Every structure is written in structure tokens, then in C-alpha cells.
Hints:
Elements: H1 4-21, E1 25-33, E2 36-44, E3 47-55, H2 70-86, E4 92-102, E5 108-113, H3 116-122
Parallel strand pairs: 3-4
Antiparallel strand pairs: 1-2, 2-3, 4-5
Amino acid sequence: xxxxxxFGKIAEDLAVEHLIKNGYKILVRNFRFKKxxxxxxxxxxxxxxxxxxxxxxxxxxxxxxxxxTKTKIKSIVSAANxxxxxxxxxxxxxxxxxxxxxxxxxxxMIDHIADAFEALDAN
Length: 123
């Protein structure tokens, strides 16, 4: 399999393809604010979708979405707030996680968790 950075880029490209195929409009990729980064900012049904892409070569230790910590959530929310202010957006925002993980045949599988931060808070 590709090295870490290549695999991350492949995962983000797959996530973008998945979103476009499902009717999302991609607004920005790799939006940065200070040290924070948002992988994908998209729009669908008048919602701004902030998507964090997590990829793992195996689920032996944890599922990809389990790597999104409270600290990571805070940094994504901070960057999202900056994006909304900078581009004068007043749309409702949803935070999603898109996990990319190979199956037993090494095909990359996508799991799109909508409203993921809300789901994480429930746990």
C-alpha cells in the first residue's frame, strides 16, 4: 500500500468523489486557519458540510473515525468558524467524518458518518 501521505491523499480524493457522486458541491479542500485544517468543505441542501477524512490501512487498533479526538474536534470547529466568518456564510453547519479503510480484498471502503460530532458527543 502507499506510504502514509499518499494514502491520506488517496483517501481524501475518494471522499471527494463520494461526496460529488452523492450530490454535494465541493467548496474547498484543505482549508487552513492557523494550525487547524479542514479536509473538505462542501455544500448540500443549503447546509455547509465540514468533512474530516480519516484513513487507516487496518482496523486492528481502532476504526478510522475513532481517531477524531475532542482536541481535533475543537480545532476543526475553530477553523470552521473562521471559514464561515471569512466567506460570510450563514448556512447551518454539519460536521461529518468520512472513514476510508481497506476490506479483506484490499478494496478501499468508505463510511460516511453524517453529523458525526453529535454522534461522538452521545458516547
